[in-house]
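Re: export button greyed out
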Amino acid sequence: MILGGGTAGWMTAAALVNQLGHACDVRLVESEEIGIVGVGEATLPHIRFFVESLGIDEADFMKATHATFKVGIAFHDFGSIGSHYLHPFGSFGAPLNDVPFHHYWLRLHAAGRGGEIWDTSICNVMADECRFEPPPPGSPLYNYAYQFDSTLFGPYLRNYATARGAVRTEGKVVDVELEGESGDVRALKLESGERIEGDLFVDCSGFRALLIGEALGEEWEDWSQWLPCDRAVAMPCTPADAPLEPYTRAHAMSGGWRWRIPLQHRVGNGYVYSSAHISDQEAADALARVVEGKAMADPRVLRFRAGRRKRSWSRNVVAIGLSSGFLEPLESTSIYLVQGAIAQLIEMFPIGRVRSEDVAEFNRATDVEYDRIRDFLILHYHATSRDDSEFWNHVRTMDVPDTLHEKMDLWRRSARVAKYSQGLFFEPSWVAVYLGQGIVPDGWDQRADAAPLPELERAVDRLRCQVAERVGAMPDAAQFLATRNASIGSVG
Ligand SMILES: Cc1cc2nc3c(=O)[nH]c(=O)nc-3n(C[C@H](O)[C@H](O)[C@H](O)COP(=O)(O)OP(=O)(O)OC[C@H]3O[C@@H](n4cnc5c(N)ncnc54)[C@H](O)[C@@H]3O)c2cc1C
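Workaround output, generated via the alternate export path:
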């Protein structure tokens, strides 16, 4: 039984009917009157595997959700005003003798040679030139994600899920019935009087967290001391009269940052800010001053808290989506977290009774995901020299979690990135953000000193030429998308 028909609810329903439709009945309750959060347009490359695993045709999906391709996130003014870098969905160069490329580049850089590291990354050059082409299957060099209309993504998946047996009920849940002895959720009561029983309940009710929070009282762990942004004002606008950028933009602002997400039919904009530092009106005015294009709707303010549920799976309730936690959209991670939770749930799906070992493992894996993303996000704020507003002074000087402190020390000393096998963001992502925000390490891997400097310089130059040549042969992003759309005819 799934409560909630936003992105989380319909992603869960689609994946469950697809993979476990033979083993369980999937039912979803949603309330049109309450509606969905209606933001959440930028994703990470993992979403491709979700779409593919459902057997959905990419071109059809992208046309129906007005989606565009995304090869990274461009950060402006984060490390300092005027600075700019891309967090690419791909690598810088390639490792040599097991030593990651950035160590060689750092050695050259220290000698005043080696140019910029950014143009050794295919995604960076694609972004600079607004070109796009999918990588050959299995290519380790780069990857891509989608930017789509979040109000169309859920309905697309709803059609998919209901066509394959998921049952949808429209209605507002007004009460949750708990079983006396076990404390499990037994049934949902709707405003219409209908009572719906279930064995396992997936709470996709968004920030309301009706089951995991209200009914079961699972505690919330607050992270606002590190991630003080607690509001966003969103304002879509008409597409810019400029080349289609195959990436999401994040511009630091005096009280937070703003996103710019180009879709096929409009551009999503929003200012994520700390209400302790600026007011809703100031944020809306600041956003209105900088959006490129005509506003397509009035500014809409959304409120949230950074943090996560201490336990996302409790008794017979599994929280997925905003009911489970929220980390601001700086690195487009929420839908990824939904996808990860669904994969875990499917792997551990209880047939019969819920097993405590599975619950513990689900909660452990969820914590790991949240903790790693949290540290990565904090880095974007903390690694800055900005001192032009109270907000930036606060995040620059705040204490950070020990786990991030250790990672930053390791990087500063040795250019090494803390390695882990689970959770988001591997070496190229950390390298991009560290260097992009101006943290150049004091040392590098000694093995990078083995090759003569001129030889190294020639190799990096060669690489740069190869990247430029490869991207130069790609079509521009808008043209690639138009050809793709044309290839499948018109969608209703
Ligand atoms: C400002 C902002 C920007 C974001 N940007 C991104 C981004 O770029 N990328 C990204 O990955 N994520 C982003 N997110 C997160 C993303 O929007 C969510 O993770 C995603 O939409 C999933 O939301 P949800 O389905 O959990 O909740 P919702 O969309 O809120 O859905 C909740 C559902 O529960 C139903 N419901 C609630 N109460 C009841 C009730 N009593 N009875 C019946 N039904 C009920 C509602 O009707 C609705 O169907 C952003 C979030 C915010 C706030």
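The pocket of flavin-adenine dinucleotide is lined by residues 4-9, 29-31, 34-37, 39-43, 150, 172-173, 204-206, 208, 210, 232, 270, 302, 304, 321-322, 329, 332, 334-335, 338 (CB under 6 Å). The button fix ships in the next patch.
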